[in-house]
Amino acid sequence: MIDKAANLNISVLILTKNEEQDLPGCLQSVSWCNDVHVYDSFSEDRTVEIARAAGATVTQRKFDNWSAHQNWGLQNIKFKHPWVLYIDADERVSDSLLATLQSLNLRDNVVAYEIRRRDFAWNNKWLKHAQISPFYLRLFRPAKMRYERLVNPISIPDGPVARMDGFLDHYPFSKGIRFWFTRHLSYADMEARMRLDDIGSGVEFSLRQALFNNDFSIRRYHQKGLFYKMPGRPLIKWIYMVVIRRAFLDGAAGITYATLQSIYEYFIVLRTKEFLNNK
Fold first, then answer.
1. Is-contact 30 36, C-beta < 8 A?
2. Alpha carbons 265 and 270: distance in angstroms, whole number
3. Statement: the pTM of the whole predicted model exceeds 0.85
4. Tens digit of each residue's pLDDT (9 = 90 or more) over 196-229
5. What is the DSSP string of 160-210?
6. DSSP β-bridge partners for residue 85
């Protein structure tokens, strides 16, 4: 670790809601930063106490949806440095990423950097093949970034982006399978509502953009929009993850993760049907 007083010109933003279990490890992984902000949705556990004890600045706001919450944070939190590294409480800055941050020459003509995330499942198994979306815009100039979509938000940078070395490590099952299912049921509600909004507004999605756009976030936006129009999505997703992305090479963890993702897709299908029937 580098000296905490060293100036990397990078602030850290961590979003929290009842994260007393995962937050200490997350804070430890960014202990090199002298401007850590914990952006909390009125946690009811020891999250705020842990954050303040570690020297982090705490800002609280009631959560409404992902994009609105993230956009408010970027617009209203007073960061000390011109660059922000955004991470979740169940993520960790790896040694390789820290080394890159130490040596990185932040370019004036770039507004954001893509960082590769490693998802780990049970027994710290890296889902190297099963992971669908490995690159995320997580280091950026806050005035040049905004988010869209209620859940699984899309990063919209206002300017050129680059890609950097190192890994951001993610532990999505750190709180157990029950928590994962509960969270994804709420995600399914928001995804279903967005699907209804797309149907009602006649939004068009482009196959060309989904396949060839240079911006990963835009590709993903159009890919998800086109995917939601396909019949048999849960099965398609499972086959895509297991066969095309070769999740089976990750062993039982990869097959299990692909199955969970297909179940999540089925949640969205069922909730969309329920909302349509209740209109």
1. yes
2. 9
3. yes
4. 877 677 677 788 887 878 776 677 777 777 777 7
5. -EEEEEEEEEE-TTTT-HHHHHHHHHHHHHHHHHHHHHHHHHT----HHHH
6. 12, 139
